[in-house]
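User: Just a sanity check before I run the rest of the batch. Below are the structure tokens for the first item. I only need the designed sequence back.
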């Protein structure tokens, strides 16, 4: 029972703290907690299920055409997972209760980031369960790394698509204008996954580079939120 409590606590607490941090980056007209919660829960539940289904379908199509296991594994990590996850997470912004609250350009960044953090919380839970089998010490190290790298990666990448969608609402343009931001979100996600999983540059070097990369990404997102917030008030 203690292990389960520790697992849930360590999986969800960091994303929740980051959610408060991202939401409070906005100084004026901060987003309602109710809408923030909706986005977080979407990411933690429906987005996880939807991404899993999409990943399975994409992997089936790849298996049929690619026989080399290493190539298939690499494509799954740097293409399939980013596409499936960056498609499912920002759909939270399409919910009527969320969409009506998007009345400033920075709102899409915030809601997208929160949906990403909800996703990372449940993902932490899955990975954390595996980490526990390696012992408490290893679990604490690995879950801590995920709580920084994985959480902020999901927040940063999905914030980009959220920003694109927010712009289509604010400027009354076609939803197709979201595509460049969606592609950028996939690129950010793919780059991070490549760094943490590919051994060509060394595991520790790749991990360090990934953490630096995600630190810059979340800094960019928060700076953009602050800039837009000051411009509109």
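Assistant: Here's the designed sequence for the first item:
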């Amino acid at each position: 029972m203690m292990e389960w409590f520790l697992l849930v606590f360590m999986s969800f607490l960091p994303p929740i703290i980051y959610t408060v941090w991202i939401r409070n980056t906005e100084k004026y007209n901060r987003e309602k907690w109710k809408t923030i919660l909706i986005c977080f829960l979407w990411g933690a539940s429906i987005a996880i299920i939807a991404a899993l289904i999409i990943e399975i379908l994409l992997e089936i199509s790849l298996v049929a055409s690619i026989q080399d296991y290493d190539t298939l594994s690499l494509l799954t990590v740097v293409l399939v997972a980013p596409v499936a996850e960056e498609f499912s997470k920002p759909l939270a912004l399409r919910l009527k209760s969320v969409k009506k609250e998007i009345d400033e350009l920075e709102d899409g960044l915030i809601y997208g980031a929160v949906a990403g953090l909800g996703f990372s919380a449940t993902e932490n839970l899955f990975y954390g369960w595996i980490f526990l089998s390696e012992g408490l010490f290893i679990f604490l190290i690995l879950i801590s790394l995920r709580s920084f790298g994985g959480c902020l990666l999901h927040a940063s990448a999905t914030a980009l698509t959220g920003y694109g969608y927010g712009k289509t609402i604010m400027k009354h343009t076609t939803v197709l204008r979201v595509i460049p931001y969606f592609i950028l979100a996939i690129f950010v996600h793919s780059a991070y996954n490549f760094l943490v999983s590919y051994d060509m540059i060394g595991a520790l070097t790749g991990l360090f580079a990934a953490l630096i990369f995600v630190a810059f990404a979340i800094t960019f997102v928060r700076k953009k939120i602050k800039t837009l917030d000051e411009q509109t008030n």
